Amino acid sequence: MQQPVAGRGDEARGPEPVGAALGVAMVELVARADPAMRRLLGRVERPLARVWLAAWWPAAPAGTVVEPNCKIGPYRVDFLILPRVVVEIDGDPPSAATRDQVVRDRRRDRYLVAQGYAVLRFAGAEVWANPWRCAEEVRDYLLGRAVAAVGGA
User: Fold this and answer.
1) pTM for the full model?
2) Tell me, what's the pLDDT at 113?
3) Nearest CA-CA partner of 80 in 134, 127, 138
4) According to the model, what pLDDT value does residue 21 have?
5) What is the model's pLDDT at position 36?
6) What kind and span of H or E run contains 40?
7) What is the DSSP letter of 95?
């Protein structure tokens, strides 16, 4: 019998968090396997963003170009996927965000949308729990597929 994989969402009771240790191991494995990925990861400081990138990169649509820590106007975004998709990874846990930080995030989102960018924002808890699902949502968006609704909203 095949055992469920933590974080992949194939458990009957729902996904188990990937956690810091597995996330770091995944990042290291992907970096060792691909020199281009190693260079990209070198430009990403935040652990959550590194975990998302490691989950997304192997199955990214062919020809996709991603720019980590890209400056757009007065803001620096976690990832710009060319030509105009922004991926933001919020900190963990979401309850730690102050009211002022939430306001700044929403203001940033409005600015980016007004400039013609699509903004896909993920809570840190989402990325730790299942980075592959977050990566799949971005991939589906890029490929013009409907993004599946995820419970808990």
Assistant:
1) 0.78
2) 97
3) 138
4) 67
5) 86
6) helix 35-41
7) G
Strand partners, 98: none
Instruction: Give the whole-angstrom CA distance, residue 59 versus residue 75.
Output: 28
Q: Give the whole-angstrom CA distance, residue 153 versus residue 149.
A: 9
In a 3-state reduction of DSSP, which class is residue 146?
coil
Which of 4, 19, 14, 6 is closest to 127 using CA atoms?
19
For residue 114, the model assigns a pLDDT of 98
The pairs formed by 26-32 with CB atoms below 8 angstroms and a separation of 24 or more are 26/51, 26/54, 26/55, 26/131, 27/51, 27/53, 27/54, 29/54, 30/54, 30/57, 30/58
Residue 133: C-alpha distances to residues 54, 117, 151 (Å): 12, 22, 12
Rounded-to-integer distance, Cα 36 and Cα 28, Å: 13
- Compute mean pLDDT per 10 residues along the chain, 153 residues long, and list them: 43 54 78 86 90 89 93 96 95 68 93 97 89 92 79 51
